[in-house]
Amino acid sequence: MAGKTVTRADLSEALHEEIGLSRQECSGLVERVLDMIVETLERGETVKLSGFGVFQVREKRARMGRNPKTGEPAAIVPRRVISFRASQLMKAKVDGANT
User: Fold this and answer.
1) Same domain, residue pair 80 and 61
2) Domain of 78?
3) Cα–Cα distance for residue pair 66/71, rounded to 1 Å
4) Phi and psi at residue 35, in whole multiples of 5°?
5) Domain total for the chain?
6) Cβ atoms of 9 and 34 closer than 8 Å
7) Region label for 70, one of left (φ > 0), alpha (ψ between -120 and 50) or beta (otherwise)
8) 49 and 33 in a common domain
């Protein structure tokens, strides 16, 4: 899987090879896990995956911005955004892969 984007299908296939469940069951399992993460974030709760990282919903306030093309001021509406903070373990593994 190195050197390319990892897709849901890639995760399902890796799960199939590792555990031996049917491809359909593995695909359903991957979908359910991702759905659970999204549902939790929709409720504004934090998702912590030990050894991986933390997904959080953050509230952004309204502010004045600028249209980069015209330079005119533009209002930016308040919104909710998702932030991800990698765990120390993940950071160490990624850093170790670069050396």
Assistant:
1) yes
2) 44-99
3) 6
4) -60, -40
5) 2
6) no
7) alpha
8) no
pLDDT value for 1: 44
- Same domain, yes or no: 99 and 59: yes
Other residues' Cβ atoms within 10 Å of the Cβ of residue 43: 8
Instruction: Record the pTM.
Output: 0.78
3-state secondary structure the chain: CCCCCCCHHHHHHHHHHHHCCCHHHHHHHHHHHHHHHHHHHHCCCCEEECCCEEEEEEEECCEEEECCCCCCEEEECCEEEEEEEECHHHHHHHHHHHC
Cα(3)–Cα(42) distance, integer angstroms: 32
What pLDDT, on a 0 to 100 scale, did the predictor assign at position 33?
A: 96
The segments of the chain whose pLDDT lies below 50 read 1
